[in-house]
Design goal:
alpha/beta; Quinone Oxidoreductase, Chain A, domain 1; Rossmann fold; six-stranded parallel beta sheet; about 25% strand; binds nicotinamide-adenine-dinucleotide; binds zinc ion
């Protein structure tokens, strides 16, 4: 059910002006009504209740945008964080989520180049220092002071969220907001992983986890970039799904008798690049047996127990490259969004209400979701 929220207008901003909201910003905000409170999914402990509740609307800092989130994709990383599976410092209580597509409704006084009404995306990387050696060389996801949405600060499973104006993504006008949301993490991450793989047009790229959220987009980015695509996932539904999205070949890891041999046969000698977007350490381990000599294995998925045995001799003698890849930088983000806006990538999301997040997490945990869920924050 849609809930009508109490609203307060620009007058509130006038009363906050002593806390740093400029007259320029005030002028641009005059027509926008921003409620005092909003609906969000909040958890207080890892694995604890996911509470659908009313919380205050955050106030943007001088460098931040306040974005009215319309849709947020639900990423497996949100589930890992909720379960406390990774050794990351997580803010608690927390509003998760990092694939938020929405509209700018306010901004801090130091923000440049954004207007109220612009479409904005809130990503995993909410902010970074912009001055360290990584930020200044296009590697801002590894900035040691980076702030992660839905981890270090409240994310996009709420109706209003803040993001650093420099890191926020510019969503092209006219795109479907429910469909563009997953591009902000799943699309960006897989597009970047493809670039990092070093694969060339015509090469075979194996997507491990091809029927999931990242995999569904990875198959399409790979195809759009001119690669031959082999999708691996479990069950008929997922492999057929990957095929319907454009995979040239698919392999069902739950039924194939000898997975490495099958992949080597189907690719005429092994995959030139393996992009592991599954959260399975076993799947990653297997990749060493079917990657082509001189090929690359790109690690994207992060299992709860993220350790495998590195087969040293074959890695050395077959001259393999092992690459870690995390989300992407601002340029990668805009490129991934352009592929989507040009119609090269479909984002066949299932839309649900924000209040349904607990059920979505349960389905994700069971591994039964085809593709990606996007939640409508108004429901
Ligand atoms: P998802 O649950 O939607 O998809 C995972 C898919 O992997 C599922 O379809 C599942 O059936 C499949 N799978 C499981 N075991 C497999 C196996 N042995 N072989 C092949 N496929 C198998 O999850 P998602 O949202 O796509 O995220 C996937 C992983 O990527 C998660 O670990 C997530 O945290 C991680 N991730 C990493 C980054 C990054 O920047 N590195 C960004 C986003 C997500
Ligand atoms: Zn994600």
């Amino acid at each position: 059910m849609l809930r009508l929220l109490p609203t307060h207008t620009v007058r509130l901003f006038c009363s906050r002006s002593a806390r740093g909201i400029s007259s320029r910003a005030l002028a641009t905000r005059a027509s926008i009504q921003i409620p005092k409170s909003q609906r969000a999914i909040v958890y207080e402990t890892h694995g604890g209740p996911l509470l659908y509740k009313e919380i205050p609307v955050p106030q943007p800092k001088p460098n931040e945008l306040l974005v009215n989130i319309k849709y947020s994709g639900v990423c497996h990383s949100d589930l890992h964080l909720y379960k406390g599976e990774w050794p990351l410092k997580v803010k608690l209580p927390l509003v998760g989520g990092h694939e938020g597509a929405g509209v700018v409704v306010a901004m801090g006084e130091a923000v440049k180049g954004w207007e109220v009404g612009d479409l904005a995306g809130i990503k995993w990387l909410n902010s970074s220092c912009q001055s360290c050696e990584y930020c200044t060389s296009g590697h801002e996801p590894v900035c040691s002071t980076s702030v992660i949405s839905g981890c270090h600060q409240d994310g996009t499973f709420q109706q209003y969220a803040v993001a650093d104006a420099i890191q926020a993504a510019r969503i092209p006008k006219g795109v479907n907001m429910a469909e563009v949301a997953p591009i902000l993490c799943a699309g960006l991450t897989t597009y970047k992983a493809m670039k990092e793989s070093g694969a060339k047009a015509g090469n075979w790229v194996a997507i491990v986890g091809a029927g999931g959220g990242l995999g569904s987009l990875a198959v399409q980015y790979a195809k759009a970039m001119g690669f031959m695509v082999l999708g691996i996932d479990g069950g008929k539904d997922k492999t057929q799904w990957a095929k319907s999205l454009g995979a040239h070949e698919v392999v069902d890891f739950t039924t194939v008798p000898d997975l490495p041999r099958t992949v080597v046969e189907k690719t005429g000698g092994g995959a030139h690049a393996v992009i592991n977007v599954s959260a399975s350490a076993t799947a990653l381990q297997q990749a060493f047996a079917y990657v082509r000599p001189t090929g690359s294995i790109v690690l994207v998925g992060i299992p709860g127990k993220p350790i495998i045995d590195l087969p040293i001799l074959p890695t050395v003698s077959r001259q393999l490259k092992i690459v870690g890849s995390m989300v992407g930088n601002r340029k990668d983000t805009q490129e991934a969004l352009e592929f989507f806006a040009r119609g090269l990538i479909k984002s066949p999301v299932k839309v649900a209400g924000l209040s349904e997040l607990p059920r979505i997490f349960e389905e994700m945990d069971k591994g039964v979701i085809l593709g990606r869920y996007t939640v409508d924050t108004s429901k």
